[in-house]
Amino acid sequence: MLRATMSSTAPPQPTVVLGVCGSIAAYKVAVVARLLVKAGVRVMPVMTRSATKMLGAPTLAGITGNRVHVDMFDPSIAGELHVELASEADLIAVVPATAEFLSALATGRADDLLRATVLCSEGPVMVAPAMHPRMWAHAATLRNVAALRADGVEFIGPVFGEVASGEVGEGRMSEPEAIAEAILARLAQVATGAHRDFDGRQLVVTAGPTVEDLDPARYLSNRSSGKMGYAIAAAASARGAQVTLISGPVALGAPAGMNIVHVRSAREMQAALDAALGPELTRADALVMAAAVADYRPGEVHAAKMKRTGATTLELVPNPDILAGIGGRREGGKPVLVGFALETVSGDALICAARDKLNKKRVDLIVANSASDAFDGDDNRIVLVSRDDSEELPRASKRVLADQLLDRLLPLLP
Ligand code: C5P
User: Torsion over CA of 389, 395, 14 and 29, rounded to 10 degrees?
Assistant: First the structure.
């Protein structure tokens, strides 16, 4: 057996088989391995032959304290290595995953140790792709990704950003911290057995800002990275929900495994929501409205760029309050409605403002946060405010908070 002997009193140590493919991004897997080890995970590295050309096996052996396996047939090991590794793993994460690896996995090839180990596993398989944006967008890759998603493979990224060639697009590997965070969150779900508790549930999540055009060069918008909404959508999808993510313009890669609708303005978001929820609002079990919808839009959209003419006044007209509209139309408990309240106050004043919003918009739960905590970063501090209660959650990453929000949402679902 490969498992190290543990004292009977020690909590079980989660084991991750960390697969590494031959992409230039392979050097970043060292950071992922380090973060997992620091979080108490036993990491068993498996590298493809080409990965060893990108990163030295001794680096991963040193960081993880475990032997790095490359060969399928290792004479020094009795038994079948891929079977042993797959049975030991609570989760397999492939970081980075190349287009070649995705293609092999999509067709079930098992001609090296990593592929055979993944094929032999019954647990979650997560992949963090890294490739040139044209490879990621190629029809063959899209086909393979769709097939793998249907097989239950979970994708971490890729994200939009600079790739090795210096070009910019979608295909850059997610940052090592985000990858480690996603793996740890998934391991926590495996440990609690909570990982498919949203099976068969339909969730609609909105995220990011809306953008209200003034002329071809200028617009009115809200400060919102979209990270909280994307984290909620990813967490719900990982827990088995069928997710429709309605996103304003953000600089985040499209998460795999869900239906994504890109919108720009509040009115486009409203139309996308009408389609996703249906005329009777019965198509979703819950709506999580994390988007920062612009409350106003310019009264007139100029076809040509406005010229500087000294002092000027803009006429703004109110946008529809989308959530309040849905809250007002809802009959019965479906969909469960979760709103967000971003305020510049904190403490009791924040809770008060959130409860006021909950009543006015007729929603079931408000996620309240302060502007000083929420913007841009990967962490947040939130208070969950319901009709009769409020619960302050400790500061944590947006992904961890997303799971905690879903834990509270689940018992409210019809
Ligand atoms: O009133 P306030 O903008 O603070 O409310 C925030 C909540 O209402 C968020 O859930 C946001 O998505 C939603 N909202 C909306 N339509 C608007 C403004 C906000 O649905 N026009």
Answer: 140
Residue 264 tokens, joined: 């720009």
Distance, first Cα to last Cα, the chain: 46
Q: Please state, in angstroms and as integers, the Cα–Cα distance from residue 286 to each residue in 117, 267, 325, following that order.
A: 37, 21, 15
In the chain, what are the domains?
2-192 (3.40.50.1950), 202-298+312-412 (3.40.50.10300)
Q: Best mutation site among 210, 289, 358, 365 for ligand 1, i.e. most ligand atoms within 8 A of its Cβ?
A: 289
Q: Which helix (H) or strand (E) holds 204?
A: strand 202-207
Q: Active-site residue numbers?
A: 222
Give distance in angstroms: CA of 239 to centre of ligand 1: 26
- The crossing angle, in degrees rounded to 10, of helices 322-329 and 347-361 is 50
- What is the 282 CA–ligand 1 centroid distance (Å)? 21
Q: pLDDT tens string for the chain (414 positions)?
A: 444 433 444 557 899 999 999 999 999 999 999 999 999 999 999 999 999 999 999 999 999 999 999 999 888 888 899 999 999 999 999 999 999 999 999 999 999 999 999 999 988 999 999 999 999 999 999 999 988 987 888 888 898 888 988 988 989 999 999 899 889 988 987 887 666 889 889 999 999 999 999 999 999 999 999 999 999 998 998 888 989 999 999 998 777 678 899 999 999 999 999 999 999 999 999 999 999 999 999 999 999 999 988 999 999 999 999 999 999 999 988 999 999 999 999 899 999 999 999 999 999 999 999 888 777 777 889 999 999 999 999 888 888 899 999 999 999 998
CA triple 53-32-400, angle to 5 deg: 155
Looking at residue 297, its amino acid is R
**From CA 400, how far away is CA 238, in angstroms rounded?**
13
Ligand 1 site residues (CB inside 6 A) read 266, 289, 291, 293, 295, 319, 321-323, 339-341, 357
DSSP alpha helix (H) spans, 151-226: 176-192
